[in-house]
Amino acid sequence: MNTDPNLTIVTPTTHHEGKTPRPVWMHGSFVVFRKLEQNVKGFEALTDQWQKYQCASKAHMGAPIVRFSIEDTKGPKNDKLINDFVYTNQICPISAHIRKTNTREILSDNDSYLRVKRIRIIRRGISYGPDYKGHEDNGSTGGLLFACYQGAIEDAFENMQSSWSNKTTFRSGTPGHDPIIGQTSSGNLETDITDQKGEHKGNVEFQQLVTLKGGECFFGPSIKALREDLSKVSS
């Protein structure tokens, strides 16, 4: 799905909620960095393999569960085909991580939630810590170093995390928390589960699987900004 560049790159026309105009040199992207500790042992303790798949909405090898008919290979052409879909059923629960953080809906300007069209990020992650296999019981920890880029943090990542992942409500219903990155004050999450036909099976409750260990927000200037406005030194 195509994304308006103004949602990920700051330009004079990028929407933001602040009243103060942005300076002319501010061409680039806002960056959110987070260190996320993952409770792999807790995730593995989920007894139902299908339930594990539904938390992230991906199978063991990474293929979306809504596209199981396509083999998950490393070929770039096949990767593009695998990820070319919209959600048309409940096989992927509405609360699943990849559905809550990317609705894949065809949106209109008449949407009751005006911000929904502006929740777009480019994200990357790299793991840290030892491989879980072989270190299950030695007390070592690991997880993900996460970074995402957007034109406005309050519209994109902040809204995605606080209004979508951390709440049981989402769009027009109450499907539960995002079971992967959802955060609550109690540490308890509740989410809907469906079967392989998309039929609702009920709610499940469990402890948070991901713990925020730290993070920060930055502004990443573009090469143009570095070469021009930001490289000028007043005499």
What features would you describe in this structure?
By secondary structure, the protein is α+β, with helices and mostly antiparallel strands. The chain is built from six helices and six strands, in the order βααααββαβββα. It has helices spanning 40-44, 49-56, 76-82, 97-100, 157-165, 223-227; strands at residues 28-38, 122-128, 143-150, 188-194, 200-207, 210-221. Strands 2-3-1-6 form a four-stranded antiparallel β-sheet. The protein has a two-stranded antiparallel ribbon with strand order 4-5.
Please supply descriptive tags for the structure shown above.
globular, two-stranded antiparallel ribbon, single chain, 235 residues, 6 helices, alpha+beta, four-stranded antiparallel beta sheet
Class from helix and strand fractions: alpha+beta
- Helical stretch count? 6
The biggest beta sheet is recorded as: 4 strands, antiparallel
Which strands sit side by side, in order, in the main sheet?
2-3-1-6
Helix content: 10-25%
Extract low-pLDDT stretches.
Answer: none
Q: Return Rg in Å.
A: 20 Å
N→C terminal distance: 48 Å
What is the N-to-C succession of helices and strands?
A: EHHHHEEHEEEH
The chain-level mean pLDDT equals 81
Task: Bin the strand percentage.
Answer: 15-25%
